[in-house]
Structure prediction request, 306 residues.
Amino acid sequence: MRSKIQSAQARQRSVNAIKAAALELFAHKGYHHTSISDIAREAGISKGLMYNYFNSKEELLTTIVNDAINSGEDILQVLEDPSLDPRLVLTQLARQSVTMVKSNLHYWKLITSLAFQTEAMKSLEVLLKNQRERNIKLAVSLFERMGSQTPLEDAYLFGATMDGIFVYYMVLENDFPVDDIANHFINQFLPQNNSTHDTLALFPDNHNRHTIIYLRKGKRIAPSPSPLSPRVAAGDPEAKDIIAKADAKLKGKTSLAEMKMTIVRPTWKRELKLKSWSKGDELALILILAPAREKGAAFLKRGREI
Prediction:
């Protein structure tokens, strides 16, 4: 007999399969040309069972869009801290966004395709408008703090340029140097003060919260937004050297680790047990040990290939 946790895990796997199938079909066939029967068939479940998880196609669409919005919520909440340098916030926002898209390119291609289906998205107009207004409000406040005379226009230009970078990357993939272009845009649009070299780093802890590390190279010690932030005085190594040294010490030339990852959401909880091996930055292997359904699945990294 299944325990409550096992039942919840089985339910979540079915929900994930339904959402993945629906997103693929919505992106390729179009929302209005996709039926509940199509989604059930693609997900490998019966049409009747579909309604145990979602009451309608509209509810399924809303869930998919909310997932996309929530994917960057942790980062956004941290970056709303008014004590942070606005240039560092925008720089980190741009770089974290690039990392997020690169880590799951296929997913973001599908989401982008869905976003261009204006008729399908009409039912979510209020949700999307509220999210846009929140993002613009944050960006405008950052540009105001930077002394911009046209903060609203700068906020829109910043967002539109990043969107353009992502579209190019989605079309050209590895033929488009997305990291180089994003860094070039940041350097052109957000020039840093030559007298200092600032670094803002976000590190997730065991509870998926973020510790803010704020480092400055200059003649004075920078204020630290977090009581855990290290203080770096003039003459000390640069921030990038400290982080690189800590990273090298953690990984070593080779590493072997066993770990448990707990994913906690409002309605479900899931645990994964993993074992990993790595050699430098080029070679890595991750093996899933539990739960039983995923046991034996492995991920091999060789250079930039996974």
In short: Residues 4-68 form a domain with the Arc Repressor Mutant, subunit A fold (CATH 1.10.10.60). The chain has twelve helices and six strands. The first strand starts at residue 197 and ends at 204.
